[in-house]
Amino acid sequence: MTDAVTKSSLTNNEVNTIHSESGGSASSQQCINLYLDWTESGEHAAAAVMALLLDAFASCKTLLRIRFSSGAYSWNDLFSFTDILCSNRKQSLRLDLEGPVSEFRETTLQRIFERRFLIRWPITFSKSTPIDWDSLHAIRPITEYGIPVIANTYIGAGLAPDAVVSNIEELLSINLSSGFALYPCSYNINSHESHVSPSVRSWLELLVAVYKRFPHFDINFDPLLELVDLSVSGGITQQYGIPRYMGVRVCPDSSVSLFRQNPNKSIPWLKRDSIMNMTAQEIWDNFVLHVKNRLYNDSRVDAQCRFQGVCGGIDSACVHKMEPELECETRCFFLESFLAQKQIIANRNNDV
Description:
alpha/beta
C-alpha cells in the first residue's frame, strides 16, 4: 500500500500547487487545538494561563479540549473554570470534554446542556483489553438528555476491520448515534506500551472499512477533513510560515508544549509562570518563532517531501518512538488519492 504513495505519475510541481489551483487563499485562518490535561489542584492557575493563551490566539480558529485521566473531578470546579474562560470573550469557543463522565444528577446534566459541551468518552479497542460494555451503558442517560457523547475510539494493533465495525455498531446503539471518532492508541491520554497502534496498512484498511460502513457518524473523519481543508488552503500559512494546524498542550507538570497531530508527542515550549509574565502579543510572537525554529524543523517535513506545502508536517519522529511512520504514510496515501482523482477529472474535462 505504501508503494502507491511513493510511485506516482504526478510531478512535484503539480503537488506543490494543488492548493492554489483549488482556489486556496493566502489569508487562510490559523487553526489551534488547545488541550488542557485537567488536575483538581491546579485549575485556578490553569484558568489564568488558558485565558492568556486564548487572548494570544484570538485571531485563530480555536478548539479547546479538556482531558481527564479519570472520572474523579468536581463538576462545580469545571463549570467555574469554563465560565471564566468563556466570559467576555469575543471569539466563539468550541469546548470538548474528553474523559469518563462522573455524576448523573439532573442539575449537572442541565448545566452541561446549557453550556453546549461536547463530551468525548474514551474507549480502547485492543486485543489485550476486553471492552467493558456494562460501564459504557452509563452513556445512555446522558445522550437521552440531549447531550452528544462521542465515542472517542482508540484502536490497538491486530484487530480485524470487521470486528471494529461490529463494535462501533454497538457503540452507536448505546449513544443514540451521537457519533464516534477514530484514533491510534498512541493518542490516548492513558496510552501505555501494551497498547500498540496498528501498522500503516492495517490502519488504512480499517479507515476505509469504517468510512464505507459509517459515512455519517464519524465526527472527525481524521485525517480526511483536515487534508481536504489543507489541499484547498495550503498546509503552511504564508503570513507566518508555520503549519496552519497546530496543537498546544497545557500539561499537568506546569509546562506548555506544542504538537501537530498527537498531543502525546508534544515538545516543550514554555512554563506556565513564563506565560503569566507575558502579553498576548509576546506569547504569539514567541509561539511563531518557536514553531519555526524548533517544532517545524524537528518534524518529518523534509525538503524532498513532495507534499510539504499541502500537509504542513507531522510530529517529530526523532524525539518520539511511537509509530513515527503512521501519520506520515496515512497522510501521504490520502493526498496521493486526492491528486489522482483530480487528474482523472482533469483528463475527463479535457476530453470533453
